[in-house]
Amino acid sequence: MNRDFILQDEIDRQHEIALSLHSETAGKRACVITFGCQQNENDSERIAGALELCGYEITDDPDSAQMIIINTCAIREHAEIRALSEAGQFKGRKERDRSIKIGLCGCMAQQSHRRDQIYKSYPYVDFVFGTDMHHRLPEIVKNALNAKKRFSFITDAPHNEFGVISEGMPVRRENRYKAWVPVMYGCNNFCTYCVVPFARGHERSRRREDVVAEVRSLVELGYKDITLLGQNVNSYNGGCDFATLLDECASFDGEYRVRFMTSHPKDASSELIDVIARNKNVAKHFHLPVQSGSSRVLKLMNRRYTREQYLEKAREIKAKVPDIAVTTDIICGFPTETDEDFADTMSLVREVGFDMIYTFIYSPRVGTVAAKMEGQIPKSVSNERFKALSDMENDIAQSLNDRLVGKTLRVLSDGLNKNGIPCGRSTQNKIVTYDKEIPAGTFIDVKIESAGAYALSGKVI
Fold this sequence. Notes:
Layout: H1 8-20, H2 22-25, E1 29-34, H3 38-53, E2 57-58, E3 67-72, H4 77-88, H5 91-96, E4 101-106, H6 112-121, E5 127-129, H7 137-146, E6 151-153, E7 178-182, E8 184-185, H8 196-200, E9 204-205, H9 208-220, E10 225-229, H10 242-249, E11 257-261, H11 270-278, E12 285-287, H12 295-301, H13 307-320, E13 325-332, H14 339-352, E14 356-361, H15 379-402, E15 408-416, E16 422-426, E17 431-433, E18 443-451, E19 455-460
Parallel strand pairs: 1-2, 1-3, 3-4, 4-5, 5-6, 7-10, 10-11, 12-13, 13-14, 17-19
Antiparallel strand pairs: 8-9, 15-16, 15-18, 16-17, 18-19
Helix pairs in contact: 1-7, 10-11, 11-13, 14-15
């Protein structure tokens, strides 16, 4: 028996608990507030699905909800502060109405020092649950409705002893044409700056047949943009390798795109690049986090590849898929990073020619190796490097987008943006605006007439 999977008997038990709650939840609303990555967004869809199963009506308005769950992120301190600030907004509401239930979950909740802070400073938070407890949400809700004391559903086991996969619990998707599909959870890499292994547990993969069946169902329902998720999708091992899984998920009839997030360079195989190149339904976008262009810093980060190995992989991607967009993550101000190390990062960015960089200033995380390193970089130096890298990338991105002027791109419409302008995204995940309002979820051809660093504009053909 694979201990990574929840038995069907337990899933059935949770369904029974959910149904038994309908008399208590009738007419009540629940709101899920999300911070963090796409994995957290998908977790929130599963939390909302379980709350709906329990009889709640789901709302985006926390002021009208009787059950509020805050799904937190711990990747950087700023994300934790925002989540705690959000929780603080409900203090007055709880004082006025003690029947309101407030829960907190996600990666931040998995950290013992943050839980201690919540217990001491946020007495109006009724319950806390961990990243491997989503399948038990009906049981958690039942406890919340009946318990007289605060409680937690948290696994404090070591990295390699916690983390589960549950199949058969509902998902309430927020979008009718874009979907996230997790293929694996957790991480075994232990990058020295990262809390993910401690917050998400060891790597475990969903079964190949379950992933493929979910994607097939989404395609049949008319979904057009499907993202396969994992802390490191390249480590997928649920009956095949990730390249094979991606190829299968992109093999169904109809026009749709399959994307994936996120890849680790050390595991990005030539077979994966070949699948992207030959399969028309695989998006021509590869997010490949480098984090630093210095081999010395990469070793301190425990990334397990060198600058030269990363460049070789980037060259292979661009050679095999000429129209691909390559994006990355970079940390500025990692402990001991010298001017020479940062110069290596700048030169790597110039050499690869990234379409976009997600740049972050190093944030010490409690419990990680890097937080204890000597040679922490002053924030002022990190800020200067952040600006220099951002300025250079703006020029690179502008140059790459200028080459697309005059070309016709296949675009998936997102309807109107927040400014009321018709927009969508290309297979390279580039934002494209255009001259006609097109229903969201519709593929169109757009001839590009102008380009900015991070957006294109044109006319619908």
